Amino acid sequence: MSLTLDEVRHIASLARLALSHEEAEKLREQLSGILDHFDLLRELDTSGVEPTAHSLPLTNVMREDNTSESLSVDRVLANAPRVEGEYLRVRAVFD
Amino acid sequence: MDLLYLTIEEASRRLASREISSVELTKAALQRADEVDDTICSFITRTPELALEQAADADRRLAEGDAGSLTGIPVALKDVLSTARIRTTCGSRILEDLVPLYDAFVVRRLQEAGAVLVGKTNCDEFAMGSSTENSAFFPTRNPWDTDRVPGGSSGGSATAVAAGEATFALGSDTGGSIRQPAALSGVVGMKPTYGRVSRYGLVAFASSLDQIGPFTLSVTDCATVLQAISGHDERDATSVSIDVPDFKAELEAGVRGLKVGVPREYFPEDMEPAVREAVATAINVLVAEGVAVDWEVSLPSTPYALATYYIIAPSEASANLARYDGVKYGYSYQDGDSMWENMEQTRGRGFGTEVKRRIMLGTYALSSGYYDAYYLKAQQVRTLIRAEFDEAFKSYDVLIAPTTPTTAFPIGAKTDDPYAMYLNDVCTLPVNIAGLPGISVPCGLVDGLPVGLQIIGKPFDEATVLRVARAYERAAGLGILRPPLRAAA
């Protein structure tokens, strides 16, 4: 399976990753190679096999909906790069 | 008196009898790190002041007769475990300055048990790697040969114990990241059953595979640490609410009559012959102890596990790592013209090569048009792999295999070939896919480099895994392997 540079750019934009031209080219090559190895799975007939998301026999885990202590706003914002008042500050989302 | 390379068991005995103090034990570990860590590089952040405070507290607890199972014992924590007020980097530039707001569940458990924190250990960035070369800061070196890797991703935790810089350590294991570096560095390392230990405060890599576990000098110590960190936690819904047995109750019971299966797919053609031989010799030690071995077990889906893992783990990682956006915490690029540009630059500059590769791989596998061919297919193969293990465990109490197909490889040997690096985990990652418990125990040296014996158990049957491991350790009589700390040529 050979990826094109456009496909690599598309995946990078879905993942919100800025890539240099060199990085994109190298990833195109490496990801194509790794995807070739994944083709091995096509040998296996999995029709009718249920998928496994995790290994535990758990479905829903319920608990009482009680309030309990949580972190203060000050502490939550302590690691934020840009803060205004009690808010996280970012550049405008819409033009 | 040599205070290095004491087991938890021996150190606790001497602490309880007041023969030594925790401050003395801790100072010995700190001094050892002063001497060797410039070479080995086990630690990203060392915490000597905190350690001496905690050691003094531990000595008070010991004097008052209020000691827990790990009181006064020096521990090192992989830097993916959240520690309040102590920087937690995940080996990444994007979290280089992050100081967490809370302790991981296991960190709190260790504090309650009285352990003394000597530092946070180096690892592959976000635990993605098999050599600790993917740390954004520096590679960790193998104390058995400093030109070689210690394994990974929990390489610093393995070497901290192997080099005598801590009595025990915690790591995380998503595809082999505890067992593989334990094998390559010559210590005991265990991945518990998925759901045995709370992941609260473990920075997420692949949530359906990640599990926290111990690195120790002995199997008994491994049982002690596992006991301290196991159990249900409301804040991790996948930590299972079942009783935690006394892992030491049957530890010395021996293995007479136990049934052992040896899956032949775990001995690939291209594995190092001397490693194959070391593992076979170790299994024969258990035969002499009275186990019944079937050397011809087959788990035919094993060759598909690597591809399955490298679809599932990066897929989950690509979702988990979406949180690093430069808005809430961590590195943040600010000079772009838009929010999206800042976010893309933050991630492009903040993440290293392997992390970006896995985010790309996972995003691709989950993207529209490819989901069925990759992610869904991998989840179906996961069902087959687990079913084969379940079937095997109807006939055998444990399965035994090599932990790795080779001994430690030279630094730089596989960094340009991601797939060759991924092959290091070929014997360990099926265990994560199926959610089973597995341990690696040292089973000798090949050309001066350690080899690991892997014992795999039924879900939540860590007790039998530990019992077999202990029987091997006792019968083989290798003792604690002390590396020569050979300097780089």
**Strand order of the biggest β-sheet of chain B:** 1-3-2-4-6-5-10-11-9-7-8
Strand runs of chain A, count? 2
Q: Helical amount among residues of chain A, as a percent range? A: 25-40%
Please state roughly what percent of the residues of chain B sit in beta strands, choosing from under 5%, 5-15%, 15-25%, 25-35%, 35-45% or over 45%: 5-15%
Measure the end-to-end span of chain B.
31 Å
Mean pLDDT of chain A: 93
Structural class category of chain B: alpha/beta
Using only CA atoms, what is the Rg of chain A?
23 Å
Count every helix of chain A, treating DSSP H or I runs of 4 or more residues as helices. Answer: 3
The first-to-last residue Cα distance of chain A is: 38 Å
Q: Reading side by side through the largest sheet of chain A, how are the strands ordered?
A: 1-2
The geometry of chain B reads as globular
What is the ordering of alpha helices and beta strands of chain B? HHEHEHEHEHEEHEHEHHHHEHHEEH
Gyration radius of chain B (Cα, Å) is 21 Å
Q: How much of the sequence of chain A is in beta strands?
A: under 5%
Shape of chain A: flat
Q: Output the structural class of chain A.
A: mainly alpha
| Quaternary status | heterodimer
Percentage of helical residues of chain B?
Answer: 25-40%
